Amino acid sequence: QFLQESPVRRRDELGELSEGISYMSREIEQSFARQKQFIGNVSHEFKTPLTSIIAYSDLLDMYRDDPELLEEARMNIRREADRLLEMVEKVLHLSAMEQYEFNLNAERIDVQEPLEEACSRLRGKAVTFDLSIETDFKPAIIRADRESLMHIFLNLIDNGIKYNVPGGTVHVACRTEGDRAIISFRDTGIGIPQEARAKLFEPFFTVSKDRARLTGGTGLGLSLVKRLVELQQGSITIAAPASNEQGTAFIVAFPIVVKSLQA
Ligand code: ADP
């Protein structure tokens, strides 16, 4: 019986093996294509601030006798250089994550705590933009890397401030729902057009280039946030605001470790 079955079994195994190999090669091809596109985007995005820096440096000589124009050129060079540095840091962060060099230090953590810290770190900035940060926290214990959580929360709250309007609010809340911790970031800002939502988490995507330059945005923040959330078994979605509401809402969910008694 073994002798009869064996060639069939071997044929099946060979079939599975070749399917596996072609799946892997498709994955590798796709990953190369993604990397090629990413490198293309990086080079393109780096060119804009570099071109400005070169242009303003050329103007320094011309503006030598005009302290006001000189100061303006200096400030523009500084702003573009800061933007470039931020991009380099974010690209390095993203590539470290892709190469699995990234050390996740998972620990039991009540999300209220890093949320409180992120809010208090950004309250000063909110006030300077005439905004307020409101909170509504319930205990929710998850397993996650604290530093990554801080990065995620700071980014989302900062976006809620950057893309807001004077007198507006950023509302941050956390609670448990079933076996998940739900963290929401709602702002009363300018909102995100429906057609832009699908691309929002792609690297370098900005709703409008002008808007991104004014706010010093790089379009890398949300792609980093999504990778960090997913590395911790979480998910992030953008919620459609109610028809009479303006602004944006991001919902982050993580599996909880201990069901909260107060949930
Ligand atoms: P950036 O560094 O440009 O802010 P992000 O990846 O964080 O990059 O965001 C991508 C784009 O999504 C931004 O350029 C902005 O247009 C839009 N965006 C992100 N968050 C918000 C928000 N809370 N309200 C409105 N627009 C937002």
TrEMBL record:
Domain HAMP: start-end pairs: 1-33
Keywords attached to this entry: ATP-binding, Cell membrane, Kinase, Membrane, Nucleotide-binding, Phosphoprotein, Transferase, Transmembrane, Transmembrane helix, Two-component regulatory system
Known EC number: 2.7.13.3
GO molecular function: protein histidine kinase activity
Membrane topology: Multi-pass membrane protein
Name this polypeptide is given: histidine kinase
Residue window of the full protein shown: 217 to 479 of 479
Record-annotated Histidine kinase domain positions: 41-258
Record has Nucleus as a keyword: no
Intracellular or extracellular location(s): Cell membrane
Principal localisation: membrane
Catalytic activity of the protein: ATP + protein L-histidine = ADP + protein N-phospho-L-histidine
